[in-house]
Backbone:
């Protein structure tokens, strides 16, 4: 690395840290503006990121991949209280369980289409069962069919 990217103290420039994680430098600046990062500064006022910052960026990315938004990550990182952490994470866990269930239903639908021996998928028993479930009388409107079904059945 060039000396401007890593100094003798083992800190990284904003460009080097961004490159390490495949991010644009403006992302790190945004996270800093939100209070998620607090880089040190060198004598010239340039940001310098150390080992703790590396861990922090990795943590932010992992939490984003888990579906948390930056505001939630900031709130979560500001607390060490277990009860507060649970209060923050419980709705996120429920949302994720819901998305997993929807993805599982979509996968089952697709696999049913792959295993269907009929030329027209609308004749498959699994498809007919799904339609019957959706069209049976409900007191509230049924949830929409998975996006995959609407796209595949519609004509193409």
Residues:
């Amino acid at each position: 690395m060039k000396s401007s990217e890593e100094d003798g103290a083992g800190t990284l420039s904003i460009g080097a840290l961004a490159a390490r994680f495949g991010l644009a430098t403006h992302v790190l600046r945004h996270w800093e503006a939100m209070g998620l990062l607090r880089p040190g500064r060198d004598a010239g006022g340039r940001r310098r990121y150390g080992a703790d910052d590396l861990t922090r960026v990795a943590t932010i990315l992992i939490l984003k991949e888990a579906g948390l938004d930056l505001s939630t990550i900031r709130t979560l990182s500001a607390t060490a209280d277990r009860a507060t952490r649970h209060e923050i994470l419980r709705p996120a866990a429920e949302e994720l369980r819901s998305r997993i269930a929807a993805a599982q239903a979509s996968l089952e639908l697709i696999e049913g289409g792959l295993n269907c021996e009929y030329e027209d998928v609308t004749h498959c028993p699994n498809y007919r069962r799904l339609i019957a479930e959706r069209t049976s009388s409900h007191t509230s409107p049924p949830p929409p069919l998975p996006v995959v079904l609407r796209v595949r059945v519609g004509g193409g």
Observations:
- Residues 131 and 137 are 12 Å apart (CA to CA).
- The mean pLDDT is 85.
